[in-house]
Design goal:
Number of strands: 4
Distance between the termini: 49 Å
Strand order of the largest sheet: 1-2-4-3
Strand content: 5-15%
Radius of gyration: 21 Å
Shape: globular
Number of helices: 9
């Protein structure tokens, strides 16, 4: 069901499709995701994140980075913390082949390899980014002593490789770098759909009916998301300063909030 929702809802979203996939698999509804994209008052981030950077503490989704590679160091840090706390958790980080040329990538994979952080770094390559890399992405893990693999973009193969890598990470065997070559499968979800149809798990009529259901749900959710009110002005200052147990802002932020309130009230008149 999730894969078909993704196929209908996020067919044109490019790199954002990965973030949408992670959110939906974790249990985020299309309505929640669209509330976030619109930045309305129902957005769990209250408009603090740009569209496509959905995050949720409850659903274990860390904040993505608007830069191509900064989140990789965060992923390594989260994985290291999980190892120190012995929680049995593992961290899965997605990135593009452009990010594999950035310093954050090398810092993250190197650090994860040194401390044996339970993590999986998954890079999608499609051959469309220029210039072409001199070294294949999965080979870069060799220099950092981490397990390195490559696979096609077929959904079942990716699921198997990532599942195995996560199991190894949780068992204390360290991180894995996986390169998924989506250029070999330009539409992995459509290929999976074909396989399900071939084996009889899915029928054309059921798929058509479900697509209509999803499109109707998305239309309702989109209208509702745009109709909801925006977050209050003061929400700009929420969760940006701990302020101790009383939750007060720093003097500088208090002055900024007062200035913003005054400007907003003057504009409202």
């Amino acid at each position: 069901r999730t894969m078909r929702v993704l196929r209908v809802a996020f067919i044109s979203s490019g790199a954002m499709e990965v973030i949408a996939a992670a959110a939906l698999v974790r249990g985020v509804s299309p309505q929640q995701y669209l509330d976030h994209a619109c930045g309305n008052d129902a957005d769990v981030l209250r408009g603090h994140g740009t569209p496509g950077t959905f995050a949720s503490r409850a659903l274990r989704i860390a904040s993505p980075s608007v830069q191509v590679s900064q989140h990789l160091t965060h992923a390594a840090g989260l994985a290291w913390a999980a190892r120190l706390r012995k929680t049995g958790e593992a961290v899965l980080a997605f990135f593009s082949e452009t990010a594999a040329d950035a310093g954050d990538f090398h810092s993250a994979v190197n650090f994860a390899g040194v401390v044996m952080a339970p993590s999986v770094f998954l890079c999608m390559t499609d051959g469309a980014e220029a210039p072409a890399p001199d070294v294949e992405v999965h080979d870069k893990g060799i220099g950092y002593g981490v397990s390195s693999e490559e696979c096609s973009g077929h959904a079942s193969e990716v699921f198997e490789r990532v599942g195995s890598a996560l199991s190894r990470a949780r068992s204390g065997e360290g991180p894995t770098l996986i390169e998924v070559r989506i250029s070999t499968d330009p539409d992995p979800l459509e290929k999976l759909r074909g396989a399900l149809l071939a084996e009889g798990t899915l029928t054309e009529s059921d798929d058509f009916a479900f697509r209509r259901e999803v499109l109707a749900e998305l239309e309702r959710a989109t209208v509702e998301a745009f109709d909801k009110a925006l977050p209050p002005i003061d929400s700009l200052f929420e969760n940006v300063f701990s302020g101790g147990s009383d939750g007060r802002l720093s003097p500088l932020l208090e002055r900024q909030r007062a200035a913003l309130r005054a400007a907003h009230e003057g504009h409202s008149r």
